[in-house]
User: What shape does this take?
Amino acid sequence: MLKIGDFSKLSRVSVRMLRYYDEIGLLKPAEIDRFTDYRYYSEAQLPTVCRITALRDMGFGLADVCAILPIYDDRERLDDFLAARQAELEQQRDDVAQRLRLLDTARKRLRKEETMNYDVTIKTLPERYAATVRMTIPRYQDEGMVWQVLCRETDSMHLLPTAPCYCCVVFLDGEYKEKDVTVEAQKTVKGPYPDTEHVRFRTLPPVTYAGCTFKGGYEQINDVVAAVSAWIDANGYDYAGAMFDIYHVSPHETKNPDEFVTEVCFPVRVCQKS
Assistant: This one.
């Protein structure tokens, strides 16, 4: 048997933390002297401490570690926990990458390394036949989920795109939402084609819109939206439908955000004078 100090040295876990593990029931001493209250640990408990440390290093909270330890030897159930944690970390990585891009853009503007000029024009998107998928997704950043469904369900159909091909996403909510965002992906094709489980093929009406095309990462979206909104207000137009984006060059064509080409679009009509 090992005193708590000796076990601490071997396990590389502090005495304070070992006492806390005991308190929450995560790792109980093998024996406690009923006269002195000294804690004693067994060398056989070292593998358990190693498992706890490994899980903590992966970022699991103590509540998760308590849930995982009893099923640690069940590979399938353990893998479920590991996969879920991996997905969380990958999402955090993506969020951090987005914040770093925003910081980089802001610093460049402060140093006046780039001047952002957003030109807004009135255009009309003609009547078109399109493959469409409407879904509610967790967040705006998860828009790729909709395109994955469209591609998966139409892959065997060998869709013929129109020329030019318009790949759009319409944001259908009447407000900004932090979660549960409803969107519709649209890709123009030469039809007709039969509907699938989630894909609907339909003819979309023409739409007149105020649009601004920009090149580069999506961190510019808010500035572009502000520019288009200001232009609409200053030029005698009213909003006439849900905002949509046209992806002229998207992550499907390139992984380099600097090469993205996106058009931010607001359906409009001429203001009715009162």
Remarks:
- The helical segments are 4-11, 15-24, 46-57, 62-68, 75-110, 144-154, 221-234.
- Residues 120-270 form a domain with the Multidrug-efflux Transporter 1 Regulator Bmrr; Chain A fold (CATH 3.20.80.10).
- The chain has two domains: 2-73, 120-270.
- DSSP finds seven helices and twelve strands in the chain.
